[in-house]
Design brief:
The chain is mainly beta and 212 residues long. It is built from two helices and 15 strands. 7% of the residues lie in helices and 49% in strands.
Length: 212
Protein backbone atom coordinates (compact mmCIF):
# COMPACT_ATOMS: atom_id res chain seq x y z
CA UNK A 1 0.00 0.00 0.00
CA UNK A 2 1.37 3.42 -0.95
CA UNK A 3 1.11 5.97 1.86
CA UNK A 4 1.27 9.60 0.79
CA UNK A 5 2.66 12.02 3.33
CA UNK A 6 2.42 15.36 1.52
CA UNK A 7 0.98 18.16 3.64
CA UNK A 8 1.51 21.27 1.46
CA UNK A 9 -1.28 22.25 -0.90
CA UNK A 10 -1.86 24.85 -3.62
CA UNK A 11 -4.56 25.84 -6.08
CA UNK A 12 -3.96 24.09 -9.39
CA UNK A 13 -4.25 26.53 -12.30
CA UNK A 14 -2.30 24.91 -15.13
CA UNK A 15 -1.98 21.59 -16.91
CA UNK A 16 0.55 18.75 -16.60
CA UNK A 17 2.14 16.70 -19.33
CA UNK A 18 1.88 13.65 -17.13
CA UNK A 19 2.42 10.77 -19.52
CA UNK A 20 6.01 9.72 -20.02
CA UNK A 21 6.52 6.40 -21.79
CA UNK A 22 9.99 4.89 -21.53
CA UNK A 23 11.82 1.69 -22.34
CA UNK A 24 14.50 0.09 -20.22
CA UNK A 25 17.67 -1.61 -21.48
CA UNK A 26 17.16 -5.11 -20.06
CA UNK A 27 20.60 -6.29 -21.23
CA UNK A 28 22.32 -3.45 -19.37
CA UNK A 29 20.38 -4.26 -16.21
CA UNK A 30 21.35 -7.92 -16.49
CA UNK A 31 25.02 -6.93 -16.61
CA UNK A 32 24.57 -4.78 -13.50
CA UNK A 33 22.87 -7.71 -11.75
CA UNK A 34 26.06 -9.78 -11.59
CA UNK A 35 28.13 -6.93 -10.14
CA UNK A 36 26.02 -5.70 -7.22
CA UNK A 37 24.75 -8.88 -5.61
CA UNK A 38 26.67 -8.36 -2.32
CA UNK A 39 25.76 -4.65 -2.12
CA UNK A 40 21.95 -4.68 -2.16
CA UNK A 41 19.40 -4.81 0.65
CA UNK A 42 15.80 -6.01 0.32
CA UNK A 43 13.41 -3.28 1.52
CA UNK A 44 10.12 -4.66 0.16
CA UNK A 45 8.77 -7.76 -1.60
CA UNK A 46 5.31 -8.79 -2.71
CA UNK A 47 3.77 -11.79 -4.48
CA UNK A 48 1.51 -11.23 -7.51
CA UNK A 49 -2.23 -11.99 -7.14
CA UNK A 50 -1.89 -15.26 -9.07
CA UNK A 51 1.06 -16.34 -6.90
CA UNK A 52 3.36 -16.80 -9.90
CA UNK A 53 5.61 -13.73 -9.66
CA UNK A 54 7.40 -11.78 -6.95
CA UNK A 55 8.36 -8.12 -7.08
CA UNK A 56 11.31 -6.98 -4.96
CA UNK A 57 12.65 -3.52 -4.11
CA UNK A 58 16.37 -3.34 -3.34
CA UNK A 59 18.28 -0.43 -1.87
CA UNK A 60 21.87 0.15 -2.97
CA UNK A 61 24.82 2.05 -1.63
CA UNK A 62 27.02 4.31 -3.71
CA UNK A 63 28.61 2.20 -6.48
CA UNK A 64 30.85 4.46 -8.62
CA UNK A 65 32.36 1.59 -10.63
CA UNK A 66 28.93 0.93 -12.18
CA UNK A 67 27.25 4.32 -12.21
CA UNK A 68 30.15 6.80 -12.31
CA UNK A 69 28.81 8.68 -15.34
CA UNK A 70 25.19 8.58 -14.13
CA UNK A 71 25.34 10.30 -10.75
CA UNK A 72 23.93 13.82 -10.64
CA UNK A 73 23.25 13.75 -6.89
CA UNK A 74 23.83 11.19 -4.15
CA UNK A 75 20.15 10.16 -4.48
CA UNK A 76 20.62 8.66 -7.96
CA UNK A 77 20.77 4.90 -8.70
CA UNK A 78 19.76 3.92 -5.18
CA UNK A 79 16.73 1.68 -5.85
CA UNK A 80 16.32 -1.43 -7.99
CA UNK A 81 12.96 -3.03 -8.77
CA UNK A 82 13.28 -6.69 -9.77
CA UNK A 83 10.78 -9.39 -10.73
CA UNK A 84 11.06 -13.12 -10.10
CA UNK A 85 9.08 -15.42 -12.41
CA UNK A 86 7.76 -18.91 -11.58
CA UNK A 87 7.92 -18.49 -7.82
CA UNK A 88 8.55 -21.83 -6.10
CA UNK A 89 9.52 -23.56 -9.35
CA UNK A 90 12.43 -22.53 -11.56
CA UNK A 91 12.95 -19.07 -10.12
CA UNK A 92 14.86 -16.45 -12.07
CA UNK A 93 15.16 -12.78 -11.15
CA UNK A 94 15.22 -9.90 -13.63
CA UNK A 95 16.04 -6.27 -12.90
CA UNK A 96 13.43 -4.08 -14.57
CA UNK A 97 14.00 -0.60 -13.13
CA UNK A 98 16.76 1.45 -11.48
CA UNK A 99 15.71 4.70 -9.82
CA UNK A 100 16.64 7.32 -7.28
CA UNK A 101 16.27 7.09 -3.52
CA UNK A 102 12.74 8.53 -3.37
CA UNK A 103 11.31 5.67 -5.47
CA UNK A 104 8.47 4.12 -3.46
CA UNK A 105 7.55 0.51 -2.75
CA UNK A 106 6.19 -1.39 -5.79
CA UNK A 107 2.69 -2.88 -5.58
CA UNK A 108 0.91 -5.18 -8.01
CA UNK A 109 -1.82 -3.95 -10.36
CA UNK A 110 -2.95 -7.25 -11.83
CA UNK A 111 -0.34 -9.91 -12.57
CA UNK A 112 1.86 -8.14 -15.11
CA UNK A 113 2.12 -4.57 -13.85
CA UNK A 114 3.30 -2.84 -10.69
CA UNK A 115 3.10 0.79 -9.63
CA UNK A 116 5.15 2.88 -7.22
CA UNK A 117 5.53 6.50 -6.23
CA UNK A 118 8.27 8.67 -7.72
CA UNK A 119 9.62 12.11 -6.93
CA UNK A 120 7.63 15.04 -8.33
CA UNK A 121 8.12 18.13 -6.16
CA UNK A 122 6.09 20.29 -3.81
CA UNK A 123 2.34 19.58 -3.64
CA UNK A 124 2.42 16.76 -6.15
CA UNK A 125 3.34 13.08 -6.29
CA UNK A 126 4.60 11.04 -9.21
CA UNK A 127 3.15 7.57 -9.80
CA UNK A 128 5.01 5.15 -12.08
CA UNK A 129 3.47 2.16 -13.86
CA UNK A 130 5.89 -0.64 -14.80
CA UNK A 131 5.29 -3.60 -17.11
CA UNK A 132 7.33 -6.35 -15.43
CA UNK A 133 7.48 -8.38 -18.66
CA UNK A 134 9.17 -5.74 -20.82
CA UNK A 135 10.40 -3.06 -18.40
CA UNK A 136 8.32 -0.43 -20.21
CA UNK A 137 7.05 2.28 -17.90
CA UNK A 138 4.68 5.23 -17.83
CA UNK A 139 4.49 8.25 -15.53
CA UNK A 140 1.44 9.87 -13.94
CA UNK A 141 1.03 12.83 -11.58
CA UNK A 142 -1.17 13.42 -8.55
CA UNK A 143 -1.73 17.09 -7.70
CA UNK A 144 -3.22 18.13 -4.36
CA UNK A 145 -5.44 21.19 -4.38
CA UNK A 146 -6.67 23.44 -1.61
CA UNK A 147 -9.50 25.96 -2.02
CA UNK A 148 -9.87 29.20 -0.08
CA UNK A 149 -12.41 27.60 2.25
CA UNK A 150 -9.89 24.91 3.23
CA UNK A 151 -11.51 22.06 1.35
CA UNK A 152 -9.24 19.69 -0.58
CA UNK A 153 -9.33 18.05 -3.97
CA UNK A 154 -7.06 15.58 -5.75
CA UNK A 155 -6.28 15.84 -9.46
CA UNK A 156 -4.89 12.71 -11.13
CA UNK A 157 -3.39 12.83 -14.64
CA UNK A 158 -2.99 9.13 -15.36
CA UNK A 159 -0.54 7.01 -17.37
CA UNK A 160 -2.70 7.26 -20.49
CA UNK A 161 -3.16 11.05 -20.52
CA UNK A 162 -6.61 10.95 -18.94
CA UNK A 163 -7.59 13.23 -16.05
CA UNK A 164 -9.63 12.52 -12.93
CA UNK A 165 -10.53 14.89 -10.11
CA UNK A 166 -12.24 14.00 -6.85
CA UNK A 167 -12.93 15.65 -3.49
CA UNK A 168 -10.56 15.02 -0.62
CA UNK A 169 -6.92 14.06 -0.33
CA UNK A 170 -5.64 10.71 -1.68
CA UNK A 171 -3.91 9.50 1.47
CA UNK A 172 -3.20 5.91 0.37
CA UNK A 173 -3.04 4.10 -2.97
CA UNK A 174 -3.23 0.34 -3.43
CA UNK A 175 -4.06 -2.31 -6.00
CA UNK A 176 -6.94 -4.73 -5.63
CA UNK A 177 -8.23 -7.76 -7.53
CA UNK A 178 -12.00 -8.23 -7.65
CA UNK A 179 -13.73 -10.78 -9.89
CA UNK A 180 -10.36 -11.31 -11.55
CA UNK A 181 -10.15 -7.63 -12.52
CA UNK A 182 -7.43 -5.25 -11.24
CA UNK A 183 -8.35 -1.91 -9.67
CA UNK A 184 -6.27 1.09 -8.66
CA UNK A 185 -7.81 2.29 -5.39
CA UNK A 186 -7.37 5.64 -3.66
CA UNK A 187 -8.30 5.93 0.02
CA UNK A 188 -9.62 9.47 0.52
CA UNK A 189 -9.68 11.72 3.58
CA UNK A 190 -10.94 15.29 4.09
CA UNK A 191 -9.19 18.39 5.44
CA UNK A 192 -9.71 17.08 8.99
CA UNK A 193 -7.88 13.83 8.16
CA UNK A 194 -11.16 11.88 8.40
CA UNK A 195 -11.63 9.04 5.90
CA UNK A 196 -14.47 9.82 3.49
CA UNK A 197 -14.37 6.84 1.12
CA UNK A 198 -12.50 5.49 -1.88
CA UNK A 199 -11.97 6.25 -5.54
CA UNK A 200 -11.74 3.07 -7.63
CA UNK A 201 -10.37 2.91 -11.18
CA UNK A 202 -10.56 -0.28 -13.28
CA UNK A 203 -7.26 -1.05 -15.03
CA UNK A 204 -7.56 -2.80 -18.42
CA UNK A 205 -3.91 -2.68 -19.47
CA UNK A 206 -4.18 0.45 -21.60
CA UNK A 207 -6.78 2.58 -19.84
CA UNK A 208 -8.14 3.42 -16.39
CA UNK A 209 -11.94 3.55 -16.09
CA UNK A 210 -13.87 5.15 -13.26
CA UNK A 211 -16.27 2.84 -11.44
CA UNK A 212 -18.70 3.31 -8.60
Amino acid sequence: MVLLGISVFFLYVGSWDAREQEDVNIDALAEIHSNIEPKKEITHQEISPDGQKKIVRYELGYIPQLFASNYVTYLDNKIIVAVTNNVGDSEREYYTFIGEARTGYPHWLGNNYVFFTSYCGTSCQGLMLLDVRSGQRWSAILTFLSNENGSRRTHFRDWFDKSFEFPGFAKKIHGEMKNNKPYLVFDIENEKAVEIGQKRLLFTGNVLEEVE
